[in-house]
Amino acid sequence: MSVIKCIQLNNSVAMPLLGLGTFKIRGQETVHRILDSALAAGYRSFDTASVYRNEEDIGRSLQTLLPKYGLCRQDIFITSKLAPKDQGRGACREACLLSLARLQCSYLDLFLIHWPGTQKMQPGDSRHKPNRLGSWADMEQLYEEGKLRAVGVSNFLQHHLEELTGVCRVTPAVLQIEFHPHLVQKDLLSWCQQSGVHFQAYSSLGTTSEDNKLLYDSTVQMIASQYNKTPAQILLRWAVQQGVGVLPKSTNKKHIEENAQVFDFELKEHDMQTLSGLSSNVHYCWDPSLIT
């Protein structure tokens, strides 16, 4: 079983640097099998969201699996996220409490605003800003009530973050955003590091399609062969070596185990630079740059 390193968030809460992503993982049997494999491999952090529609299955599975591994709720880190349709004061609170109920938890370790915009609004709609600030006000209250151990955002860019940090009582602990060698958001990473906001990557391995240009990038594959590692391990190591959190997702037991084995080797500086040099500003997921 791999030993996964933890980092300390800006409010002193400890969070594993590597967690299991659960996007597109649905169905009770599938969720149970994958969480079982992840717990056996040493994972203690699990990332979900209201829009993933698997919170209930995750909650039910953890209730039965944690005792199997001699674990309790305090031994794991659970993240969920606010759906874009639930943005705004009051709606956010209700949605968060629903996530807690579905996950069968009295608290979440981390809750994120999933997207800076509100569903069914045009990207330039002036209501996006007051809605996300209203959501944040709800999250601050839930944080102060002890229902959330940490709060943060996902898919926010620097101008969204500066707007939020200019008025908030509780500074965001985490920014979760797409980040990999084809999309090296250097300036945003630097801003987060200087501001004490932990930078956490999603889609570290590119897309889930068979035409995965990142995993099959010839440079990534060449470096992987030099270290006798998988391309996925190289991509994950590139991130965690920069202090960036990662959330690899897989339904394959072997891959789940391999993806956790990224803390027992180090990439040479020139290989780190070579990987960073692959950046071509390619988004494999969502691009939030148009949201005002």
Output the helix-strand order. EEEHEHEHEHEHEHEHHHH
The number of strands is 9
Structural class by secondary-structure content = alpha/beta
Indicate the low-confidence ranges by residue numbers.
none
- Name the beta content range: 5-15%
Q: What is the residue-averaged pLDDT?
A: 96
Radius of gyration in whole Å, from Cα?
18 Å
Task: Give the N-terminus to C-terminus distance in angstroms.
Answer: 44 Å
What keyword list fits this structure?
globular, 37% helix, alpha/beta, 292 residues, 9 strands, 7-stranded parallel β-sheet
Notes on the structure:
- This protein has 292 residues and is of the alpha/beta class.
- It is 37% helix and 12% strand.
- It contains ten helices and nine strands.
- The chain has a seven-stranded parallel β-sheet with strand order 3-4-5-6-7-8-9. A two-stranded antiparallel sheet has the order 1-2.
- The longest helix is centred in the middle third of the chain and has 17 residues, at 128-144.
